[in-house]
Amino acid sequence: xxxxxxxxxxxxxxxxxxxxxxxxxxxxxxxxxxxxxxxxxxxxxxxxxxxxxxxxxxxxxxxxxxxxxxxxxxxxxxxxxxxxxxxxxxxxxxxxxxxxxxxxxxxxxxxxxxxxxxxxxxxxxxxxxxxx
Length: 132
What we know:
Elements: E1 7-12, H1 15-25, E2 29-34, E3 37-42, E4 45-51, E5 63-66, H2 69-81, E6 86-88, E7 96-100, E8 106-110, H3 114-123
Parallel strand pairs: 1-4, 5-8
Antiparallel strand pairs: 2-3, 3-4, 6-7, 7-8
């Protein structure tokens, strides 16, 4: 039986650039860094950077990070002031900012929970929606 997500590993082209982005821009806590990788955490999530040719997704696949309503605009402003490229405009409930990391991986800052999303679907359901 699965217990949860153990860790997330992403391929990065430049460990120093990616390390700086995830630590300084997103506020992850560094634990170890070496020539070809780094271990970081975001609360309890173990996040690994691994030097390997990055081939970012060309579809909608992305990582969404939880941010509080109180901190969303501060983080959004910080990211936009650094001219970090956005990859999508928000069209769902709650605040979201869709942006790219230095390797082109798709990321999102999101305010809200699954329960918030499910509640919004009761009022504006997706085509063919089944709620469980």
